[in-house]
Amino acid sequence: MIKGDQFVGAFKTDEEAYRAGIRKYGNTAFLIKQVVKNYDDTVHFEIHIPSNLAIFLSKRRNTIPRPISGLALIDTGATSSCVDKGGISNLGVQPVGIVNTSTAGGKVKQNVYPAKLYFPVEKIWVEFSRATGVDIGDQTVDGKRIIALIGRDPLSRWVLIYNGPGGLFTLGIQPLFVKFYTFTRLQHQL
């Protein structure tokens, strides 16, 4: 926990830090921050079938497909978030429409899919009614598959701070109170 420019203490959970902050400072602003090691500008994610499809399958006693695990890139140039079209199709999710997109290769029509992304490090779920399906299935970082691009649709509700020289970024997500996660580039020894 941080108050002003002072490090106040480290806690096992955000709730523990929040309660300690309220006890010590009352109803004034303080920062709860978690530091997480990760690779470059990537975040580990899972793609799940959308909630409505999971409910539908459960009611019919059908098996719910296992999620797809991989990395998600933060893409501030993407108007909307994207999922790997091969991966989401393999989960049995059908497209719900088509969108015209502008890419580095020109204008392209792409399917859009409902999808649910899960950030397991912090147990954060993000449900998308329309995520653009893109062909990124063969893209990897350090041998780990990229499965999603996090665009400005959720980023417009979050705080993203990029520190290029420091090789890290901080992502602030506000559920009930602001939680900040700092991702640092892993240092590889030669």
What would you say this structure looks like, in words?
The chain is of the alpha+beta class and 190 residues long. The protein has a domain of 125 residues: Acid Proteases (Cathepsin D, subunit A, domain 1), CATH 2.40.70. It is built from four helices and 14 strands. It has a six-stranded mixed beta barrel. It is globular and about 50 Å long. The relative contact order is 0.20. The C terminus is likely disordered.
Which helices and strands appear, and what pairs or packs with what?
Blueprint: E1 2-3, E2 6-7, H1 14-25, E3 33-38, E4 42-48, H2 51-59, E5 68-74, E6 82-84, H3 85-90, E7 97-103, E8 106-119, E9 124-134, E10 140-141, E11 144-150, H4 152-155, E12 159-163, E13 168-173, E14 179-185
Parallel strand pairs: 3-14, 5-11, 6-9
Antiparallel strand pairs: 1-2, 4-5, 4-8, 6-11, 7-8, 8-9, 10-11, 12-13, 13-14
SSE order, one letter for each helix or strand: EEHEEHEEHEEEEEHEEE
Number of helices: 4
* Secondary structure category: alpha+beta
* Beta-strand content bin: over 45%
For CATH, the homologous superfamily of the domain at 37-161 is named as Acid Proteases
The order of strands across the largest sheet is 4-5-11-6-9-8
* CATH architecture annotation of the domain at 37-161: Beta Barrel
Q: Average the pLDDT over all residues and give the rounded result.
A: 80
Shape: globular
Low-confidence stretches: 37-41, 176-190
